[in-house]
Amino acid sequence: MKIERIARDKVRIFISYEDLERRGIGRDEIWHNGKKVQELFWDMMETAYEEVGFEVAGPISIEAFTMPSEGVVVIVTRVPALPAKKEEEDDLDDDGIDMDLLTPTDPNFVFEFADFEDVVRVCHALLDFGLVTRLYQYDRSYLMTVDENSMGDEAYDAIWAILHEYGEFSSMAPAWLEEYATTILADNAVEVIAERFPLR
What we know:
Elements: E1 2-7, E2 10-16, H1 17-22, H2 35-52, E3 60-67, E4 71-78, H3 86-89, E5 108-113, H4 116-126, E6 133-138, E7 141-147, H5 156-166, E8 168-170, H6 174-180, E9 182-185, H7 189-196
Antiparallel strand pairs: 1-2, 2-4, 3-4, 5-7, 5-8, 6-7, 6-9
């Protein structure tokens, strides 16, 4: 389990599939509000408090998304208190947390590239797959989001092999990139880069 505080009221938690297996939680089971999942959540909150000083005080929102072979990223945000409607109260657990918010919200995952030459090479290698991609820059790195839904089952392994050849998987959340990174290409990143920067 890795925890990173990305804002005053927000933390990002990465849980590997090995972590889940050790707790007896299957990959599909993470999306159900079972006892093991609730225990995992409160363990995460305790660890977040101990490691980065993030304390659950009042209502929070939970976003989560899976990465094909890496694990699960959970983003927890403290939100201003709002009056709860009666029909919503039945979904809250004993601590007032809406555990049903722990659902997949973003099909995108992120790969990081050390320099622009690697971005050009990976875009040419991925050009024929028809992927939905965006390109960002943060600090000195380039980051590409890939929509998992645009990856066909037959090409799935090949695409991951190409991405790993030129870059490294990143646990950064796409939503975080949208807010804090510089957007270079918001659509068709692979196609645009391959067209504008031919291989030498």
